[in-house]
Amino acid sequence: MSDSAGRPMKFPYTFSAKLAQFPLKFYIQNQWIWKYWAIGIVVSLPVFYKINKLANSPGNVAKWAEIRRKEAAEHH
Q1: 0.85 exceeded by the pTM?
Q2: Whether 18 contacts 8, CB under 8 Å
Q3: Highest taxon of the source (predicted)?
Q4: Long-range pairs for 59-64 at CB < 8 Å and ≥24 separation?
Q5: How many distinct structural domains can be found in the chain?
Q6: What's the confidence (pLDDT) of residue 5?
Q7: Is residue 30 part of a domain?
Q8: Range of the domain at 46
Q9: Would 9 be classed as within a structural domain?
Q10: 23-75 pLDDT, tens per residue?
Q11: What is the 3-state secondary structure (H, E, C) of the chain?
């Protein structure tokens, strides 16, 4: 194996070489979108959890089953 195996290419022309040399850490540290994306997920998770609990409650499931039963009866 040659000594140049660990040296980056002058121009990364393959996708894997481009991916290996991409400065992801720089972008994460210096762009606002990453921080607000994480904050947005943390803030929205409790809201979505509450919506999911309400939508899948036994009363709501029974109500929609009755609505679907009535719709099916109308089509026959």
Answers
A1: no
A2: no
A3: Eukaryota
A4: none
A5: 1
A6: 64
A7: yes
A8: 23-75
A9: no
A10: 999 999 999 999 999 999 999 999 999 999 999 999 999 999 999 999 999 88
A11: CCHHHHCCCCCCCCHHHHHHHCCHHHHHHHCHHHHHHHHHHHHHHHHHHHHHHHHCCHHHHHHHHHHHHHHHHHHC
